[in-house]
Design a protein that fits this description.
It is found in: Cytoplasm; Cell membrane. It comes from Wenjunlia tyrosinilytica. An essential GTPase that binds both GDP and GTP, with rapid nucleotide exchange. Plays a role in 16S rRNA processing and 30S ribosomal subunit biogenesis and possibly also in cell cycle regulation and energy metabolism. It contains 9 helices and 9 strands. By secondary structure, it is α/β, with parallel strands linked by helices. It folds into 2 domains: 171 residues, Rossmann fold, CATH 3.40.50.300; 113 residues, K homology (KH) domain (GMP Synthetase, Chain A, domain 3, 2-Layer Sandwich). The strands form 2 sheets. Strands 2-3-1-4-5-6 form a 6-stranded mixed beta sheet, with helices on both faces. A 3-stranded mixed beta sheet has the order 7-8-9. Strand 5, helix 4 and strand 6 form a beta-alpha-beta unit. Helix 6 runs antiparallel to helix 8. The chain is globular. It starts with 12 loop residues before the first strand and ends with a helix. It binds guanosine-5'-triphosphate. Guanosine-5'-triphosphate binds next to helix 1. Guanosine-5'-triphosphate (GTP) binds next to helix 1.
Length: 313
């Protein structure tokens, strides 16, 4: 296992990385652990990338921009296939892919499916990241490392590195950044260091909710969901060591008939969307959150310029 040789070891490097892995593999938590307290979130899609920036690791020697890619799913429809094509093209556009595999779960069909697809992204270096190492003993961890090594050999993937980390304890998170940095191309920083307003934070929060809302219904409602964060306010009267952030957000759909899909039987799906996005928002902002989520119909918002403006497009 080796890293790409450098023409000049002192040269500054900058580039894009994305984390892939099945749901709950620990991608968001790891992103936040890497970025640390200095959460540099940029809202829009800068010219350098079509993808949402999740966080930026600023180091003296390198700038690592972590971007989101849509999840890869077993395609059941033509649209599903198209979305997977999009994922694949993203993989060709980033400088390194981190494949997250939780230490506490044996490799399964979901991991294998992603790995097979990864094997096709031949030109992009791939780092296998064993996440949640705090949950297992060293024997289990060793077995997982061997299994991943074998999976790579079987599918013809040459891992640039295989790294065990714990985003929760922080163990080896710094090492992961050390290993990712040399895989980036030489170049100046792509983004300025720091300096951000609350507005992008709200946009990020809206995006996390939208992502959770789309999960599993992407094929049915691919572009019909918009989310607007109406308010983000610290709850009054809370003790200083137990803050709570109240977030009120509206989830807009285009037609009343889509309500059922979003809300689910007895509200189960909406509840899931709330729980999941709250987890991600808490990880992003580093504070407990109360999320108040409402579903509203904004008739044909995609075709109505007034609505589009209101929804921030
Ligand atoms: N013990 C432990 N738990 C972790 C660690 N990293 C993540 N988790 C937990 O694992 C769960 C999933 O983590 P996420 O970071 O949301 O996973 P994800 O891959 O972003 O999930 P999706 O958004 O569903 O794809 C959460 O409950 C995390 O708290 C870790 O290093 N150690």
């Amino acid at each position: 296992m080796s890293v790409r040789p450098s023409s000049d070891d002192q040269a500054h490097r900058a580039g894009f990385a994305c984390f892939v892995g099945r749901p709950n593999a620990g991608k968001s938590t790891l992103t936040n652990a890497l970025v640390g307290t200095k959460v540099a979130i940029t809202s829009g899609r800068p010219q350098t990338t079509r993808h949402t920036v999740r966080g930026i690791v600023h180091r003296p020697d390198a700038q690592l921009v972590l971007v989101d890619t849509p999840g890869l799913h077993k395609p059941r429809t033509l649209l599903g296939e198209r979305l997977n094509d999009l994922v694949r093209s993203t993989w060709g556009e980033v400088d390194v892919i981190g494949f997250c595999l939780p230490a506490d779960q044996k490799l399964g069909p979901g991991d294998r499916y992603i790995a097979k697809e990864l094997a096709e992204a031949k030109r992009t270096p791939k780092v296998a990241i064993v996440t949640k190492t705090d949950l297992v003993d060293s024997k289990t961890l060793a077995e997982q490392l061997i299994a991943i090594d074998r999976l790579g050999a079987e599918l013809g993937i040459e891992w640039a590195q295989i790294v065990p980390v714990s985003a929760v304890s922080g163990k080896q998170v710094g090492l992961l950044a050390d290993l990712l940095a040399p895989l980036l191309p030489e170049g100046p920083a792509l983004y300025p260091d720091g300096d951000l307003t609350d507005e992008p934070e709200q946009v990020m929060v809206a995006e996390l909710i939208r992502e959770a809302a789309l999960e599993g219904v992407r094929d049915e409602l691919p572009h019909s969901i918009a989310v607007v964060v109406e308010e983000m306010l610290p709850r009054e009267g809370r003790p200083a060591d137990r803050p709570l952030l109240d977030i009120h957000a509206n989830l807009y759909i285009e037609r009343p008939s889509q309500k059922g899909i979003i809300i689910g039987p007895k509200g189960a799906r909406l509840k899931e969307v709330g729980t999941k996005s709250r987890r991600h928002i808490e990880a992003l902002l580093g504070t407990p959150v109360f999320l108040d989520l409402h579903v509203k119909v904004a008739k044909d918002w995609q075709r109505d310029p007034k609505q589009l403006r209101k929804l921030g497009f």
